[in-house]
Batch of 2 targets.
Target 1
Amino acid sequence: MSITHDEVIHTATLARLRLTDAELDRFSRELARITEYMDQLKEAVEQLGDDDVPAVRTDSRMTLRPDHIEQWFDSSVVLRAAPDTKGHLFRVPKVIG
Amino acid sequence: MADHPTTGDIPTLRAQRESGAQTARAVVDRYLERLQARRDLNSYVLVAEDDARTAAEDVDAGNRPGPLAGVPLAIKDNILVEGQPCTCGSRMLDGWVAPYDATAVARLRAAGAVFLGKTNCDEFGMGSSNENSYFGPAKNPIDPSRVTGGSSGGSAAAVADGQAMAAIGSDTGGSIRLPASYCGVIGLKPTYGAVSRWGLVAFASSLDQIGVLARTVDDARSVFHVIRGHDPRDATSRTDPPIHEETRPRRIGLLREYLEEGLDPDIRAAVLKVADALKEQGHDIVDASLPSARYALQTYYIICCAEASSNLARYDGVKYGYRTGNAAELIDMFEQTRDQGFGDEVKRRILLGSYVLSAGYFDQYYGTAQRMRQAIISDYTRAFVEVDCLLTPTAPNCAFPIGEKLDDPLTMYLVDVYTTSVNLAGLPGLSFPCGAIGGLPIGAQLIGRPMEEDLLLDLAGQVYESVRPTITLASE
């Protein structure tokens, strides 16, 4: 079941993307084809045997670094990259209309 | 006599510099001259002339000794170099300056390397042709009407064209190997976790890996040996040592699923020629199979889009990067910023990723893809009981004309058909030129066990001279 035009509108809202009508039409067509292609996977996975799918990922490994404070940037370095700031704060348009 | 930038390699450079035959500054000047003369290829989005000359003078003053002293390198523009802009080929980061070095860059710097600039790439690494760049497509130096491959297209073109001795790229689903194949250079995508991702702008974090593009196998190895190794700043960085056993006959599997129907007969013949050359070196060539490999592409695009939609949520116009100029309210600002800051392919993947993670579709798409990813890993694990590495084509085609696939995203995705399973399984993959069709290079791919990059480099090194095509660059 491929993605519908309405689902693309809903997904764009979730993803905080404002799309023009022309973009919505084009993306709906393209994504419908792509999700149709992706749908082939479901049937293939249903045919997998249990030994194809180990319960625990065997390749994952994570090594967390020691939990200690490290000197990093001064906050002014970070703030310099922001589009708008005031003092030590990021400034944004009003949140509540 | 100094080498031309298109033919120099790291050992020759080192010997000439150490004997006093030429200075690092003179070498860097020659490369800068070359890349300025070839600006029409759009390989670089930033040329750091002053920084490069200063760094070369430091090498000549004896202040920067190391295995890569004075070696002129290019860095893909999604990897941070302190003090230099890093755009990721996106309007979203146009003008943003990196406040620190990526670990790979810091290691190259400590090894004496000189950075010429930042190379063009598909926006945030999303693309197979380098046409999805805010700065326009990089052009193939062999035929500028054709794509370089992507996403590390600028890096591959710069190396092929003598605009850098070697380059750093990143590979999420083939983004080093594919452009290496299309531009006729060597491309190494290391084991996931072999090279730190600290300072690589995230696209799909479980797949992204920094690697090397070079003109010789030895140069690829030299650069890789500098950038690899554990880094506590990347929690997925591996702590186990690389494996490099003595040279001995190996069993090499010809991957059946990647050589069957639909493959261009010239590409199949070129890959089989590599198998013959390996056989002549004393290795066994056997048949190998990965039954789940035919589903790698669907699996890859679900997982990479899901991860991209999450990683790219950070671009909201608040902390850094582009912000729209005409929004009255916060949500309006988010939406307009992201619509204006991102290009089409990035939006497409954010939409796909948000969709496959959304309520009602998560199990159908993302959950299913994770199961298939495990099946692919299991298939590789089983294959590597029988063989030491696998041989495949890198791509189903050679470099195609710019614009040919731009209106058909699904067809564009299909060029990654032989590379994505390697990222899903976290394995090392090496592409090297093994033939040509009408002057356009063909790439062969060797896939190895985790941390066995050196075996892949050894094997490629044994046959490279006998299989490499003669490549003619487009005239200046």
Target 2
Amino acid sequence: MAPNRVSPDIQAGRLPADQYADNFDDLHEPLDRHEAVVEADRCYFCYDAPCQTACPTSIDIPMFIRQISTGNANGAARTIFDQNILGGMCARVCPTETLCEEVCVREVAEGKPVKIGLLQRYATDHFLETAEQHPYERAAPTGKSVAIVGAGPAGLSCAHALARHGHDVTIFEAREKAGGLNEHGIAAYKTTENFAQREVDFITGIGGIAIRNGMALGRDVTLDDLVAGHDAVFLGMGLPGVNDLGLEGDDADNCIDAVAYIEKLRQTDDLSALPVGRNIVVIGGGMTAIDVAVQTKLLGAETVTICYRRGPEQMNASQYEQEVAQTHGVTIRHWLQPQALVRNDDGAVTGITLEYTAMNGKLSGTGETVTLDADQVFKAIGQKPVEGLFGGVSLDLSGGRIFTDDDRRTSHDKVWAGGDCIAGGEDLTVVAVEDGKIAAASIHKRLTG
Amino acid sequence: MADLHTNFLGVSSPNPFWLASAPPTDKQYNVERAFEAGWGGVVWKTLGEAGPPVVNVNGPRYGAIWGPDRRLLGLNNIELITDRDLEVNLREIETVKKNWPDRAMIVSLMVPCEEEPWKNILASVEQTGADAVELNFGCPHGMSERGMGSAVGQVPEYIEMVARWCKQHSDLPVIVKLTPNITDIRKPAEAAKRGGADAVSLINTINSIVSVDLDSYSPVPSIDGKGSHGGYCGPAVKPIALSMVSEIARHPETHGMPISGIGGIQTWRDAAEYIALGCGTVQVCTAAMTYGFKIVQEMIAGLEAWMDEKGHATIEDFRGMAVPNVTDWQYLNLNYVTKARINQDLCISCGRCHIACEDTSHQAITNMVDGVRKFEVIDEECVGCNLCVNVCPVDDCITMEQISGTDPRTGKPIDPDYGNWTEHPNNPSVQREAAE
């Protein structure tokens, strides 16, 4: 070890000041008008299009692409918003490579799908930049009020649809800003130029939606009160808890919850002021693992290693996302599970010992270990519900998450739920949007039926 | 190696690729660049009478339609004949012909429909050493308002009259360039032949407005808010031109008359198609104006390669080979029964064949088989129309296959022998004969 090496080596400002903006710029350059028209021409306008079937929100993809090709970008955006009012964010964060683009017939034919995500971004950006008014008009007020918990994708989607029907919506949001994971949990280079907030403004632009920030369920407001004070309640608070490694030293300052770190990164005004380790180990195999790994690399970490206890096929992060990480210089190591944190006399983590794993019927350690230097260890091994949020209201759960039927109704007559907090979902923005949409339709039916 | 050399009306050129009378052939500078690039000949941009030359608009002269990547598909123009002095043009023609004696030098002409102007200009052209003249009876814009261009080409009597003057007053071979802006292209071709013309060239440009500006409501190209129809050319017009060429090539009155083919020729393949329909040379403009003169090298190399592959030693070996296969609808074999066949290994399941057939045609292609997305032809419904082939985005995925035995659609046996409409029992005239 070099004599001047501080341990653990965690510093802000590892990069020249002008490097940060470049590093955290759009991961994928948006298409310009001509590029969009040329790309749109690659779409075959399929009948019963596989892309549309694969989209959790069933956007009429061939139609919006055709509208782009004829110069009607705002009409294309309207086609998108008809099915998915968060179409702008989904264009940025959807794993299109495992949804619409995976089944694009041009993927089948030549391994090069139509760039549906980028085209969707082109249309929705065009709308947000040029349209002078909200695309939808509110129906006459119904006098009904709906409480929504969480201003993330599920809650916003639900709120918009209900407001459009003329209901009054109040969203109770624990954080100081709306947007949920779009604002706090997704890599910065996927949603540049404050897009999450611009999208919140766009959605609430329909009117009839009040957002009350700093109002956490179970802390500042109870479900009992919401049920009593509103005609219906929609729960879309996500998964506020995070899983721990379950190792001694887990609570060290430099053994960090990846979600919290990303949130800090997303909310900071000055990326160069954000401390980052020289050698980073990320534990996990999902999108949060990828997002924290790539972003710490972009903050100037020297080595970033993701360790995942199973193989590449089992990672929740798609093959494409894994490649994005690797392209950015992140090393992904498979078949390694955390065994012990290496700590110095001050209790700070300086490394992590991992045990090799193998599938012998079930996943088990082989006994062989490896120890990696780590100035920071990031925990990205999943989020979990927090218990005791519902006060006196009883809701059926499934695997710790809220149980809902096909209409996203919970076991309580006046409560619906959607997004990451319900059982059976895929923890994707686009799925949360669809949950909110379905719940809104069901709530509307109930309130007006 | 195939020999591309052509002899058209006794005019020799090293290959059949000529530049059509148009902006690329308006000056010595351009034409010599073309010859350096390899073009076999040029038709010099149309000369008018001596005296003050015509003037062009000073705003845009061209309009276009494009594919999505701005690939130019069709071009229109409102440019007139040469706006340079006649003397300058004649001097340059003479110089270029001297510099490039092995290339064809044809001079396009357009003067008022009177004998003297034609006599005068022919005499001037003869002195340049040019190989032939082409009478511009085709331009549909501007000059036609002054009784020239297509105003002549639309009146067979005028064509015959002027062609006759030209043959009387000059020994130069005479090519009559025809306008497509007419109902039956055979009539002006017959007139040209009656007047003694040696050949026809076609097509000149088609009356066109390429688009309307939806902000100013002006046709494009817009000259100070107004537009006038122009002449349309480029790849989009090729099918129209091929049909007109074929009409002249197979018409008994004009069959065998030399034809120089024009209209949307971009590649060697386009050229080969024109030649197969009887053309002795082809003329190109839009492709050169889009990509520059170098494209002729692809045309030469491609045509040579194809001729070698087919075993055609010279242009004459395949010229006109498609002409006997152009016929009237009534003679098409109604006992030729085809069904679409979809190659499931190539199919990418876009469903375009299905929806085209389902919505607009014969409901003869499935979209679901045993609950699985699958596109199969239903022979009982398929009329063999070929629409599915044309809308399929994959090469050779759907093909038309001739069947024999019983047609599943009609349930009737297929007559193995040729049979056409003239003998078909549903033909009213056949019914009448049977009754008599």
